[in-house]
Amino acid sequence: MTTLATQTAGPQDGKKHAEPTEHEAAAISDVVFDFCGVLIDWQCGAALRGRYPDSLVDRICAPDDPYGFFDYEDRMDHGEALADILPNVRHDHGDDIADIFADYIARYDDSLTRIIPGMESLLKDLKAAGYGVWGLTNWSYETFHFAFDKFPQLKELLDGTVVSGVEKQFKPNAGFYRLALGRFGIADPASSVFFDDTPRNVEGAKSVGMHAFLFDDATHARRELQLLGVRI
């Protein structure tokens, strides 16, 4: 693993935060980002297509997937190990599907197709302006390393990342956001902004006092930050 909870230290020494203007209700000091769907374009089918029949890949990647790949992956995001989940997959769906799921996890980096357009520039601009820039993700401890292996610039730009599979806590539970705020050295949740592509995770962040927005694209995220007084 390249980044676990031990790398989520507090704000860097000497970091300059933007000062509030008179009309700002609170000064924003830190911005927190989800990973898949916000920083990274995750496509399940990209790790499967070309290796298995298209009809099978379409079923696996469909919202109503009869093989439960998303459910098994969610269990990994909650902290379970692949070795503990695979027997369940074999029992539920047979050896062939279990082998495909294991192969999918082994080549998980193939599903990480690109950095979301405009997000690298947004992170760079926030860093240059002195804001704290962080990651908060529901992701398996066994596969999270692929994110930084494939996109090392994200590791360089983020001041730290808290991963659900490491902590065995997860969004949208309030405790997970509070854990992250503590790791990031953010004493006042209202001084932070969170972006996620899942509505319940946005609501979870709001429940602990963070500003939070449903992510659409980098342009809209930048505009939301500017409306809060973030100088980028």
Describe the structure.
- The protein has 232 residues and is of the alpha/beta class.
- It has two domains: 30-41 and 114-228, HAD superfamily/HAD-like (Rossmann fold), CATH 3.40.50; 54-106, no CATH class.
- 42% of the residues lie in helices and 13% in strands.
- It is built from eleven helices and seven strands.
- The strands form two sheets. A five-stranded parallel beta sheet has the order 5-4-1-6-7, with helices on both faces.
- The longest helix is centred in the middle third of the chain and has 12 residues, at 82-93.
- The protein is elongated and about 55 Å long.
- It starts with 29 loop residues before the first strand and ends in a 5-residue tail after the last helix.
- The model is unreliable at 1-24 (pLDDT under 50).
Could you spell the SSE succession in H and E letters?
Answer: EEHHHHEHEHHEHHEHEH
How much strand?
5-15%
In helices, the fraction of residues equals 40-55%
Overall SS class: alpha/beta
Q: Largest sheet, described in full?
A: 5 strands, parallel
Gap from first CA to last CA:
32 Å
Low-confidence parts: 1-24
> What is the overall pLDDT average?
91
Number of strands: 7
Q: How many domains make up the coordinates?
A: 2
CATH superfamily of the largest domain: HAD superfamily/HAD-like
Rounded to an integer, what's the Rg over CA atoms? Answer: 18 Å
What is the overall shape?
Answer: elongated
Question: Which CATH architecture of the largest domain?
Answer: 3-Layer(aba) Sandwich
Number of helices: 11
- Order the strands across the largest sheet as they lie in space: 5-4-1-6-7
Q: Quick one: CATH class of the largest domain?
A: Alpha Beta
Give me the CATH fold name of the largest domain.
Rossmann fold
Protein name: HAD-superfamily hydrolase, subfamily IA, variant 3
Keywords: Hydrolase
Biased composition (Polar residues): 1-10
InterPro entries: HAD-like_sf (IPR036412), HAD-SF_hydro_IA (IPR006439), HAD_sf (IPR023214)
